Each structure stands twice: as C-alpha cells, then as structure tokens.
Amino acid sequence: MSDCLFCKIVAGQIPSTKVYEDETVYAFRDINPMAPVHILVVPKRHISSADEVTAENSADIARIFEVIPRIAKEEGLTNGYRVITNCGADACQSVKHLHFHILGGKQLPDNMG
Ligand code: 5GP
Ligand code: ZN
User: Fold this and answer.
1) Three-class DSSP category at 94
2) 108 near 57, Cβ under 8 Å?
3) Ranges of residues in the chain whose predicted pLDDT is under 50
4) How many Å separate Cα 51 from the centre of its chain?
5) Cα separation of 83 and 18, whole Å?
6) How many CA atoms, within 13 angstroms, populate the side-chain half-sphere of residue 54?
7) Ligand 1 site: residues with CB under 6 angstroms?
8) Does the pTM exceed 0.85?
9) How is 13-48 classified by DSSP, letter by letter?
10) Which of 40, 97, 100 to mutate to test the pocket of ligand 1 (most atoms within 8 A of CB)?
C-alpha cells in the first residue's frame, strides 16, 4: 500500500513519535491529540479497517490488544482509558489503515455521539 499514510509511518518514510514497536505492531503519538495521552496502535501490515479483519490476519489484532495494556501502563493510565477504532464513512475513518486510538489522562466525555 504505497500511498497509505500509516504504511509510510510504519516504514519510517514519514516521521512519527514512536511509543512501541515489535514485529507486527507499531504505536505512535497522534499528531492532533484529543486527550493528554492519545496514541495510535496499528498493525504493521496493511489492513484497511476493522471491517477487513479475517481469520488470516486476526492474530495481528490479538497482538495489538496484548500491547495496549502495556502501553497504557507505561503512559501512567492507571485510572482507565478508552480504545476506539473508527470504521468506514459513518464513523469518520479518515486514514484507511486500521488503527486503534488509546485516549486517556483525563476524564473523557461519556457521550459518543
Ligand atoms: P481516524 O479519524 O481515521 O480514526 O483517525 C486518524 C487519526 O490519525 C487522527 O486522530 C489524526 O490526528 C491522526 N493522524 C493523521 N495524520 C497523521 C500523521 O501524519 N501523523 C500522526 N502521528 N497522526 C496522524
Ligand atoms: Zn497502510
């Protein structure tokens, strides 16, 4: 996916503030944070959205959910945090590479719109 923004970030072609990396997962700070802690966690291999998760690639997603608590702990999110993925047009997904937002560091609004 040569024209994918997050594939370019994973490849280091576009700079990012790395928070975590392993063979399958990359995490970095959101460029426009909506909370004191706002991190994006992505599979390194291109998956367009949550709607494209299959038996063939779901191990990458499982790995992401192993990594999320580790990141939360390192970021000091001891009072909780939110994990969000926007999927498709109605959810306003703006980058078509599956990503999970970790939001925390303050009391978040309970109205999800
Ligand atoms: P979405 O709306 O697709 O769920 O979220 C995309 C997120 O990617 C947004 O929160 C946006 O701020 C973030 N983002 C967009 N472009 C960049 C970028 O070049 N670098 C970083 N670090 N975040 C980005
Ligand atoms: Zn991609």
Assistant:
1) coil
2) no
3) none
4) 15
5) 18
6) 5
7) 5, 14, 16, 28-32, 40, 86, 92-95
8) yes
9) SS---EEEE-SSEEEEE-SS-SSSEEEEEEESS---
10) 40
